[in-house]
UniProtKB/TrEMBL annotation:
InterPro entries: Efm4/METTL10 (IPR026635), Methyltranfer_dom (IPR025714), SAM-dependent_MTases_sf (IPR029063)
Protein name: Protein-lysine N-methyltransferase M5D96_004800
Source organism superkingdom: Eukaryota
PANTHER family, alphabetized: EEF1A LYSINE METHYLTRANSFERASE 2, PROTEIN-LYSINE N-METHYLTRANSFERASE METTL10
Swiss-Prot/TrEMBL keywords: Cytoplasm, Methyltransferase, S-adenosyl-L-methionine, Transferase
GO CC annotation: cytoplasm
Length: 214
């Protein structure tokens, strides 16, 4: 994918319309909606977090571009108690709130544009992004500038130098993420993801990488 060309996936209108449809489906059939890509990556990240001794169930976790909130539902079911999700689509936040309430889970959801400073959110021990940096990259209007603004916001949301920024992307390779983040973050860990072989080369369908602040 050419990372400099915009797409409707980078527009708020696309996601508002998509989540509006999913709210109706959820209310009618209890269907929590589509997973944008690689449903298993969510579980891989949760499993990895559970194995980290320094990440306790009291850790403050923020999910960027939370969508229907199922990543945080997964963490809540594992006993995590300080969970916040943000999305720039009010309809996504509405759907996530319905799902959390129906499952009797105490998860905080807010509408937020992550290309703007989010000082009122506070700071977190774990900041998670699955596909949100991708969507920012697909923004038809100044994607490079938007990516820089997004990363500046993420940096401020991390509580300490040991806080973790966990990102899963279907649009960028691990090397590309490392290069793009080099001014603010350093790679801490790679979470293994499925590979494929094509023309004698091995590649990854998605990339999951954990970063820390420089």
């Amino acid at each position: 994918m050419d990372n400099e060309h915009g797409s409707e996936l980078g527009t708020q209108e696309y996601w508002e319309s998509s989540y509006n449809r999913e709210i109706k489906n959820y209310k009618s059939h209890g269907d929590v909606g589509e997973i944008w890509f690689d449903e298993d990556s969510q579980q891989r990240v949760i499993y990895w977090l559970l194995k980290q001794e320094e990440i306790t169930k009291e850790a403050k976790v923020l999910d960027l571009g939370c969508g229907n909130g199922m990543f945080l539902v997964g963490l809540a079911n594992e006993g995590f108690g300080q969970l916040t999700g943000v999305d720039y689509s009010p309809k996504a936040v509405e759907l996530a709130q319905h799902i959390a309430q129906d499952n009797k889970l105490d998860i905080s959801y807010k509408v937020a544009d992550l290309t703007q400073p989010q000082d009122e959110l506070g700071t977190f021990d774990v900041v998670h992004d699955k596909g949100t940096y991708d969507a920012v990259s697909l923004c038809p209007d100044s994607p490079k500038e938007k990516r820089a603004l997004y990363l500046a916001t993420v940096e401020k949301l991390l509580r300490t130098a040991d806080s973790l920024f966990v990102i899963t992307s279907c649009n960028w390779t691990e090397d590309e993420l490392e290069q793009s983040f080099a001014e603010k973050f350093v790679k801490y860990h790679s979470i293994p993801t499925p590979t494929f072989k094509f023309g004698g080369k091995v590649g990854n369908v998605v990339t999951s990488v954990v970063f820390k602040k420089l």
